[in-house]
From TrEMBL:
<keyword id="KW-0143">Chaperone</keyword>
<comment type="function">
    <text>Zinc chaperone that directly transfers zinc cofactor to target proteins, thereby activating them. Zinc is transferred from the CXCC motif in the GTPase domain to the zinc binding site in target proteins in a process requiring GTP hydrolysis.</text>
</comment>
<keyword id="KW-0547">Nucleotide-binding</keyword>
<dbReference type="GO" id="GO:0016787">
    <property type="term" value="F:hydrolase activity"/>
</dbReference>
<dbReference type="InterPro" id="IPR003495">
    <property type="entry name" value="CobW/HypB/UreG_nucleotide-bd"/>
</dbReference>
<feature type="domain" description="CobW C-terminal">
    <location>
        <begin position="247"/>
        <end position="342"/>
    </location>
</feature>
<dbReference type="Pfam" id="PF02492">
    <property type="entry name" value="cobW"/>
</dbReference>
<keyword id="KW-0378">Hydrolase</keyword>
<protein>
    <submittedName>
        <fullName>GTPase, G3E family</fullName>
    </submittedName>
</protein>
<dbReference type="Pfam" id="PF07683">
    <property type="entry name" value="CobW_C"/>
</dbReference>
<dbReference type="InterPro" id="IPR011629">
    <property type="entry name" value="CobW-like_C"/>
</dbReference>
<comment type="similarity">
    <text>Belongs to the SIMIBI class G3E GTPase family. ZNG1 subfamily.</text>
</comment>
<dbReference type="InterPro" id="IPR036627">
    <property type="entry name" value="CobW-likC_sf"/>
</dbReference>
<dbReference type="GO" id="GO:0000166">
    <property type="term" value="F:nucleotide binding"/>
</dbReference>
<dbReference type="InterPro" id="IPR051316">
    <property type="entry name" value="Zinc-reg_GTPase_activator"/>
</dbReference>
<dbReference type="InterPro" id="IPR027417">
    <property type="entry name" value="P-loop_NTPase"/>
</dbReference>
Length: 367
């Protein structure tokens, strides 16, 4: 009997942000029954696993190293072993796996490990990234550590911890900065966040996740802030410049359905030329071949999760809506590439046929 795909939640946040405290509380919630927890640490002495108050076979500790580098192979092996033990009846069926990363981890390679293995993608579904941010030290951490910026930028949920210890002005400034950095995230307080509010933040079930989908894919102009500088280039692209200006959010919008071949070619070139700078991507696409069932895509760097089809359209505009979270990406190149494959190339920009022969022919490309 085939099992439903297991939801995978990635819990990230910088050192000392409060991940373990949040995890301890959430694991007592009935919503997280039948959950396996994978804890990663960095350093010679392992102590975090002693702080998690769930003593069961579901608690797994990875060896010394950071999930984003030295133990990615071990993470894949651990996940594969969990799946094998469940499918062979050696452990009870799992509903969810929570991966708690070390505070020094860039979550993007962790996402790659989950999404990029052909066996894992059949048995697992990425539910979302939860990032815990320390209200007291969060701003200083974002200033000093690019890893913290990337953790917040790719999150579906941002959980503010220790809010009661922060000055009101500091908390307001931190929240505004995080909202500018990631206008697509849902913000919660650690002391009141429930398991229900933190899970089910993927793109797989339109009935339960429509609000999250629309939050990710809505017009970026809905998320203006006084300290943002926004411009629209007239082609459906809206771009925000933030304090953390190497990490940006780029919206690509086309009002009409497109062929599967056009969107596939665009994504292939985007990932091959800019994949290392593409932290995360989500999109809903109206296809000429089947306009009533939107195609949902989810990518991390050069990896694209197997596309899913929704049974019907959520509320909001149709056509093509993509949201990219990027790191130091030449946005003008991406915008021109998108326009060319949507059939509306800019002046002096090659069309789709020319680009498929030479993907680097667009001005603005930077390796």
């Amino acid at each position: 009997m085939a099992h439903a795909p297991i939801a995978v939640s990635i819990l990230t946040g910088f050192l000392g942000a409060g991940k373990t405290t949040l995890l301890n509380r959430l694991l007592k919630d009935p919503e997280l029954e039948s959950t396996a927890v994978i804890i990663n640490e960095f350093g010679e002495i392992s102590i975090d696993h002693m702080l998690v108050e769930q003593a069961s076979d579901g608690l797994i500790q990875l060896a010394d190293g950071c999930l984003c580098c030295t133990v990615r192979g071990e993470l894949v092996d651990t996940l594969a072993d969990l799946i094998d033990r469940m499918q062979t009846g050696r452990i009870a069926p799992l509903k969810r796996i929570v991966i708690e990363t070390t505070g020094l981890a860039d979550p993007v390679p962790v996402l790659q490990a989950v999404m990029g293995h052909p066996v894992l993608t059949q048995a697992l579904r990425l539910d979302g990234v939860i990032c815990v941010v320390d209200a007291v030290n969060g701003s200083a951490t974002l200033d000093a550590h690019q890893e913290a910026v990337r953790q917040a930028a790719v999150a579906d949920r941002i959980v503010i911890a220790k809010a009661d210890l922060a000055e009101a002005k500091e908390l307001e400034a931190l929240t505004a900065r995080l909202n500018s950095l990631n206008p697509r995230a849902t913000f919660l307080r650690a002391d009141s966040a429930s398991a229900t509010a933190l899970i089910d933040c993927g793109l797989y079930d339109p009935k339960r996740r429509e609000a999250d989908l629309n939050r990710w894919l809505g017009e970026l102009s809905d998320a203006h802030h006084d300290h943002d500088h926004t411009h629209d280039d007239g082609c459906g692209h809206t771009h925000h410049h933030h304090h953390d200006d190497r990490v940006r959010t780029l919206s690509l919008v086309h009002p009409q359905p497109v062929s599967f071949g056009a969107i596939e070619a665009f994504l292939d070139i985007l990932r091959s030329t800019q994949g290392d700078k593409l932290l995360r991507m989500k999109g809903v696409i109206e296809l000429v071949e089947d306009p009533e069932r939107p195609l949902v895509i989810h990518g991390v760097q050069k990896l694209l999760h197997p596309p899913a089809r929704l049974t019907s359209w959520p509320e909001g505009p149709r056509g093509v809506r993509l949201v990219l979270i990027t790191f130091d990406m030449p946005d003008i190149y991406v915008q021109r590439l998108f326009s060319a494959f949507m059939g509306a190339p800019s002046i002096d920009t090659p069309d789709r046929a020319a680009l498929q022969d030479n993907p680097l022919a667009i001005a603005g490309y930077r390796p």
